[in-house]
Design brief:
About 80% of the residues lie in helices and about 0% in strands. By secondary structure, it is mostly helical. The chain is elongated, with a radius of gyration of 24 Å.
């Protein structure tokens, strides 16, 4: 019964992570398509150059707003990925220790399989970090 419950919890964490990353990607793509490529200049009636806003300055103002929200969303996504990975690692460590306690002669084989599993979990967390960083700076 406990194994089924744990699998359901891990499934829910994984699904939440996927949804968070998909929402982050959709928000980044939506903001990118909604933002104009070239910002229009604002020219005053007197045509004074000191009051004229350049396209670069207008683009920087709009970009700073969306970058902040992307950074917050990326932080949430990385937090979810790290939490799900930590839960998975905790379960793997507990089960490996139980197995070694039951069969001490299988220590080497269990330990190598355990380390390989931890490496895969860490790789998934690092991929989530890379995707979040790409969304912040590229999109």
């Amino acid at each position: 019964m406990k194994t089924g419950f744990r699998k359901k919890i891990l499934f829910v964490f994984g699904l939440a992570l996927l949804l968070a990353l998909a929402a982050l990607l959709a928000a980044g793509l939506g903001e990118r398509s909604a933002a104009p490529v070239f910002a229009e200049t604002q020219i005053s009636a007197a045509a004074d150059e000191s009051e004229t806003q350049t396209p670069v300055a207008a683009a920087e103002e709009g970009e700073s707003d969306s970058t902040g929200w992307k950074a917050i969303a990326a932080g949430i996504a990385i937090g979810l990925a790290a939490a799900a990975g930590a839960v998975g690692m905790g379960i793997a460590i507990a089960k490996t220790n139980e197995s070694i306690a039951r069969q001490p002669e299988a220590d080497g084989k269990l330990r190598s399989t355990f380390m390989l599993g931890l490496i895969f979990i860490e790789t998934a967390i690092i991929y989530a970090l890379v995707v979040a960083i790409l969304i912040i700076f590229v999109l």
